[in-house]
Amino acid sequence: MSGRRLLIVAHAPSPNTLRLRDAAASGARHPDIEGVETEVLSPFDATPDHVLAAHALLLGTTENLGYMSGALKDFFDRIYYPCLEETQGRPFGFYIRAGHDGTGTRRAIETITTGLRWRAVAEPVLCRGEWREAFAADCEELGMTLAAGLEAGVF
User: Fold this and answer.
1) What is the pLDDT confidence band of residue 3, given thresholds at 50, 70 and 90?
2) 75: closest CA among 44, 102, 51?
3) DSSP per position, 64-96
4) Are 87 and 57 in contact (CB under 8 A)?
5) How far apart (Å, rounded) are the C-alpha atoms in residues 93 and 152?
6) Which is nearest to 38 in space by CA: 129, 144, 127?
7) Predicted TM-score (pTM) above 0.90
8) Helices then strands (H, E): number in the chain?
């Protein structure tokens, strides 16, 4: 199955969150995965047209005051109604860089994506507490999982 598109929309305001975004993209672009184009955008740059053209999405955010980043919220505000009817069932996954527990952030993302009727196809990656190198590996695996699933036609 060729011509599949994975859209990564990730807020990366720090060197460590940039590493998470880049790790997810690296996993999605694994050399063994063919026929999947991966596009990486800031939430501020992603438009409804990007979402409509994607076959799956990977979202990334920081935990800000127990909620998703304002950047990801802005993305959802702009794409929600233009994409509501057209993207039902769209497979997605997400990761959260949480200084605390990420619970409120996870709940907020799940509430909005449930409203969009998107379909979670991977467990969220919650990067909690002090920075650990394993966070990047977990995000890389998430990117690889979504791209491999697209390549195989699983979703």
Assistant:
1) confident
2) 44
3) ETTEE-HHHHHHHHHHHHHHTTT-TT-EEEEEE
4) no
5) 17
6) 144
7) yes
8) 5, 7
